[in-house]
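Sample entry follows:

_____
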Amino acid sequence: MIIKQLEINGHLFINVPADIKTLMELGVSNQKALELIAETEQKAKFERVLQQRIYAYKNESDPLYMEYQYDKTSESEKKWRDRVTEIKTCYPLPEVS
């Protein structure tokens, strides 16, 4: 994993490997390095789930939405809304601090 931007003692570092050895060599304390790694992992997990949701919406719920827009029936609206709910359940967004 990569930390996109990291400021240490007034110096900006870009694309820093999120591993404890590299961070400590840059002057980050052990505790701060662990926090940065955990934060980077959390953000990466959020991005993965978000991309999975986007893919599912595009391929599964958007066609149902277009069908609903075409015929405006309560049945097609329910199918579309149910699929959106299933996607949100299948890919719950993790909390990012």
